[in-house]
Amino acid sequence: MEFQGQSLQLKMLGDGIAELIFDLQGESVNKFDRQTLDELKQIGDSLAAAKDVKGLLVSSAKPVFIVGADITEFGESFKQSDEQLLEWCAQSNAIFNTIEDLPFPSVTAINGIAFGGGLEMALSTDYRVMADVAQIGLPEVKLGIIPGFGGTVRLPRLIGADNAIEWIASGKPQKADAALKNHAVDAVVSVDALRDASLALLKDAIDGKFDWKARRAQKTGKLKLNMVESMMVFETAKGFIAGQAGKNYPAPLAAVKSIQKGAGKDRDGALKAEHEAFLSVAKTSVAASLIGLFLNDQLLKKKAKGATKAGNKVELAAVLGAGIMGGGIAYQSASKGTPIVMKDIKTEQLELGLNEANKLLAKLVERGKIDAVKMGKALANIRATLNYGDFNDVDIVVEAVVENPNVKHAVLAEVEDQVGEDAIITSNTSTISISYLAQALKRPENFCGMHFFNPVHKMPLVEVIRGEKSSDLAVATTVAYAAAMGKTPIVVNDCPGFLVNRILFPYFAGFQALMNEGADFRQVDKVMEGFGWPMGPAYLLDVVGIDTAHHAQAVMAEGFPDRMKSEQRTSLDVMYEETRYGQKNDKGYYVYEVDRKGRPKKVFDAGVMDMLKQVQPDGVKEFDKQEIVERMMIPMIIETARCLEEKIVETPNEADMGLILGIGFPPFRGGALKYADTLGLQAVIDMAAKYSHLGKLYEPTERMREMAANGETYYG
């Protein structure tokens, strides 16, 4: 009995053993798409009817086992009616049930990643042998959904409800030692020994040395918990998970409820509970947003991979300007394996930069992420210098001196004379035009922007800014270097504020207008944090730095005077004039104290209310929560649309990812353009009309109106 499909193969190995091999043609990984499920059904039905098969080995011909379901198919699948989606769940699970119910034992050899449907496939067999380098897990909650191929049914019956809840609700990958300890797998061996070990286990099961029927009964029966244990496990878990996940992420709690509802049922009854729970989250806007973010991330990775092929390889980098920012950039480069020269004109700045890198590496050692040897190697990759020395060998330079165009011009012209003709020079600037900075250079084609977000080690985004004369090679090399540093690069065209800050400041403008009308910044912060932002606008301004924001606001006002220039003094002006610069000097809209862990903790300062009377002559009043959200979010949506229309950014995917990675836009809302799609563009336009008296920030573009009239969306 043989089968050769596009996704699966079935071979007979002798001694009555069949081998089911996952090998999706034309792809580097295996995944569950419609074709794979169809072929698995054919093979399952054939195996169930076979008379000469005594055992089944499930394996992969690729370096991974199965990475999960094909997420690109989710969009169409989730558009089905509730009845159709439930039927799809039932039909899909019937395929796995056929494998589980085969009249002979089965073993899965997990050679690499087995996530989502990959682990659920392995759980449908009687035994699992795992390579020591492999990882398994059920990460579906990170996409706003829950396991749908039996994960909430089989995993709790193997490893216990409490362990299964932790695995599923966190979505975290599990290494081989944890998988073995929790009894999710039956053995862990080296990759080289995996096949032999799996076949040996299967033969022992065939020979009756292992009771595979008892193992199967464990997975297909009821969860072994009495009433008291059930109450303790599920009610405690639900309370904890609801607190951790919050109201905006329903999937983790839905997974727990699915396990609980199916606990007293056999496999088939428990699967029905899983199908219903899956339906309850699959068609939500949260799932649509989180699945969209995953696909956006895949697009960015694909673009970075293309840039790596198109750009020059960076063997040695350099950063100009040490201190906290320069030290952060040096740490990021060195820790990811690219040696870097850190230059400054002051010894004390170099020491500050080296101390910053040392501190960040020491934290990794403290958390067990690296050992002292790796820390030493990373530090050895950073060479601090007061002169240009070996700059002729540098492939890329990141200029990170003070945010002053005259200083940057001088430094850029100076370094260009010190590097080779093919070296790429970049500027880490958040506000200054790249095309303007390029005027100082003889080879402007070798220059572009490389905007890191602070703190460098935490913030995943890097904006790569293309100036008027930046070459494709310069941009590609910079993107490749950012990706090699472990960052997510997004290419944007030059304009005031580039992408993220250009979109952020209309949001801040909405806040300042509310403040001028008497809003309490504490209420606005609370409402926007309730909307999903990690911090409200006043708190965010304190974190960014009031002086930094004040300077950036002036740049934005000059660049876009029609909508970003305020004729009134604002609360930002007041904070700046009162030298309340936020966390950097422990006083802004809030004052800051150090908590027990040494982190800044915001505290209300009643004195700030007196200062704000300068721009709130009529006093403070309460606003409707919905009005606050609309007045804050509409300018951000419209400005994001403008950036897309003006080709500052190439795709809506990149625009939204820039906001999520750069300023913490609520992921469950998917980004400004995804949020606009969720609301409906006509609804956004109608909303904006209510605030037309507030000026051009609330004026939708003609293209937005055209899209609304035609029923178009950004993610069509």
UniProtKB/TrEMBL annotation:
Q: Which family does it belong to?
A: Belongs to the enoyl-CoA hydratase/isomerase family. In the central section; belongs to the 3-hydroxyacyl-CoA dehydrogenase family.
Hey, which pathway is this one from?
Lipid metabolism; fatty acid beta-oxidation
Keyword match Disulfide bond = no
* This protein's name: enoyl-CoA hydratase
Domain (3-hydroxyacyl-CoA dehydrogenase NAD binding) ranges = 317-495
Q: Which Enzyme Commission number(s) are on file for it?
A: 4.2.1.17
Catalytic activity reads: a (3S)-3-hydroxyacyl-CoA + NAD(+) = a 3-oxoacyl-CoA + NADH + H(+)
Where, if anywhere, are coiled coils annotated?
none
Residues of the 3-hydroxyacyl-CoA dehydrogenase C-terminal domain: 497-592
Gene3D superfamilies in UniProt: 1.10.1040.50, 2-enoyl-CoA Hydratase, Chain A, domain 1, NAD(P)-binding Rossmann-like Domain
Query: Which enzyme class, named as a word?
Result: lyase
GO terms (molecular function) for this protein are: 3-hydroxybutyryl-CoA epimerase activity; delta(3)-delta(2)-enoyl-CoA isomerase activity; enoyl-CoA hydratase activity; long-chain (3S)-3-hydroxyacyl-CoA dehydrogenase (NAD+) activity; NAD+ binding
The record's annotation in SUPFAM superfamilies points to: 6-phosphogluconate dehydrogenase C-terminal domain-like, ClpP/crotonase, NAD(P)-binding Rossmann-fold domains
